[in-house]
Amino acid sequence: MKHVKLALKKIAQIVLHILFWSGVLLFYTYFFGFDSEDFSYILSFSLFLMPITIATTYVSIYKLIPDYLFTKQYIRFAFYSFSTFIISAYLIVISVIYGLVYLSNFESSEMAPISRSLLFVAIAVYMVVIIASGYKLLKLNIKHSQTTSKLEKKILEAQLKLKEQELNYLKMQIHPHFLFNTLNTMYGFALKKANETPEMILKLSNLLDYLLYKVDKPFVLLTEDIEHIKDYIELEKMRFNKTLNINFTTNNISEDIKIAPMLLLPFIENSFKHGAIKNGTLDITSNINCKNGAIHFCIENTTSEEEIVKKGIGLTNIKKRLDLLYKDNYDLKIVHKNGIFKVNLILQNI
């Protein structure tokens, strides 16, 4: 089937070329027949010009333009174009001599008026060459634009796939980190045989459901993400008991605002992991606020002056995910000063 299509395409091209050159021959007979009634002379002169025109045109459209002009080899293009012009001009001179010697028996008065002028004969030939070359150049430009567009599309698709793979890889790293911290908390309660263990298992079950079935989505409702942050905080409250003083608030949360899943939770985790208990309590203050089409998230916790907050997997991954999902649309500031570790994150154009 493919071979048949190629054969039909070649046949169509041959037919188009025949029609084009037939049109050129008609143009020549009309052009050189101006103010002349000797049709036999006009047809013979036009037929003699046809091979010159065809050869010059095909050299231009199949060699000079695609091999030198389109590949930006301008010096070679200029050299070979000039050579082609010299040879074709010589052949045009021969055609005028042919019309004078063989068709008019050295009687210039017997020649068609326009065919006597070398300038007009050259204009007729090179006009056809220029028109055909212009069409070829336009066709090559369109083909090049289409090829470039397809290539850009493939590159963009490849980049998107790479980003998706990187995001999936980052999520795979976040999940074990989150589970490790939570299961450690549950293990401590199980050792104590605390009454809160069943409730803790229920909270973890909710978080696991979120982690397994929602986190693979590119975006989730911010309200859902907040609910699971609250579940995590409740788990930590059970672990820290009276040594935890946390104030988590939300303001102006719209029901339709979406956010990348598990984006804010690593910051919450870090506040517990790296926070320091001072005067008997670990103080954590966090707020999520939506205003002017942006999500404002801030969290701060007490930490010791000697504590060096490590760039663990969670925090490193969250920065990478921000770059991939909110590039140029987020502002992240992390400050560790005077015993306070503070994070400010603004997600814009959400």
Automatic annotation (TrEMBL):
InterPro entries associated with the record: Bact_2-comp_sensor_kinase (IPR050640), HATPase_C_sf (IPR036890), Sig_transdc_His_kin_internal (IPR010559)
**EC number of this enzyme:** 2.7.13.3
Annotated ranges, domain Signal transduction histidine kinase internal region: 166-243
Cite a single GO MF annotation.
Answer: protein histidine kinase activity
Q: Where are the transmembrane segments?
A: 12-33, 39-65, 77-98, 118-138
Q: Which UniProt keywords apply?
A: Kinase, Membrane, Transferase, Transmembrane, Transmembrane helix
Which EC class is this protein assigned?
transferase
Which protein are we looking at?
Sensor histidine kinase
Organism expressing this protein natively: Hyunsoonleella rubra
Recall the taxonomic lineage recorded for the source organism: Bacteria, Pseudomonadati, Bacteroidota, Flavobacteriia, Flavobacteriales
